[in-house]
Amino acid sequence: MPRIRPRLIALAALAALAILTATSCSLGSDRTKEATGTPAAAEEPSRISIPDIGVRSRLLRLGLNSDDTVQVPPPEKGMTAGWYTGSAKPGTPGAAVIIGHNDTRDGKAVFHDLGKVGKGTAIDVERGDGKVLRFTVTGTETVDKSAFPTRKVYGSTSDRVLRLVTCAGDLDAQGHPVRNLIVYASLRT
């Protein structure tokens, strides 16, 4: 029985993360706790850069909201992306997840042009110790939030990968985008 419990816990965590798809891109979510700007530890990511689309952003540290959804950067920090601290540290085995807004009520946000990246695009992640890790885009995917590939984005892997997540698509009746854009990237070796 001890082997089942960790698996059930992992599945429950993935199910909780799936709720992200319904709430992550609200432009003014009142359920979003303030993301922290705590400086990164040496091995944690502190900045992201995607030169091909002009992205250069420091990274907020994002956790979980009280309802177990993943935090997103506050709308007033739309030009700042955030690293989900429940994911892997970039460069270590696992999927590191960075989340950013596409748009806010004030206009374009940090990941507004993320849809322009393609296979082979370079993504640089700087750690707190100044080391820069270069990732290469391996693919992109746009999905309905109701069909968000939680396991594919947040699930366990022995590879050293990066996932960027933002909103995309038309707005629903509440003014929230109905789709997510996911960028998949692998660490260059």
| Rg computed from alpha carbons, rounded to a whole number of angstroms | 16 Å
Unreliable segments of 5+ consecutive residues: 1-24, 26-34
Order of helices and strands: HHEEEEEEEEHEE
The CATH superfamily label reads Sortase
**CATH C-level category:** Mainly Beta
Large-scale geometry: globular
Total of domains = 1
Strand content: 35-45%
What is the averaged pLDDT score? 84
- By secondary-structure content and strand pairing, the structural class works out as mainly beta
Q: Span between N and C termini?
A: 39 Å
Strands, count: 10
Give the count of helical stretches. Answer: 3
Report the oligomer: single chain
| Major pleated sheet | 8 strands, mixed, barrel
Order of strands, widest sheet: 1-2-3-4-9-10-8-7
Helix content: 10-25%
Describe this entry's structure for a reader.
The protein is mainly beta and 189 residues long. It has one domain (4-187): Sortase (Sortase, Chain: A, Beta Barrel). It has three helices and ten strands. The protein has an eight-stranded mixed β-barrel. A two-stranded antiparallel sheet has the order 5-6. A hairpin with a 2-residue loop joins strand 5 (103-104) and strand 6. The N and C termini lie far apart (39 Å). The model is unreliable at 1-24 and 26-34 (pLDDT under 50).
Short description:
The chain has 189 residues and is mainly beta.
How do the strands and helices of this protein lay out in sequence?
Blueprint: H1 4-18, H2 20-23, E1 45-50, E2 55-62, E3 81-84, E4 94-99, E5 103-104, E6 107-108, E7 122-127, E8 132-144, H3 150-154, E9 160-171, E10 177-187
Parallel strand pairs: 2-3, 4-9
Antiparallel strand pairs: 1-2, 1-7, 3-4, 5-6, 7-8, 8-10, 9-10
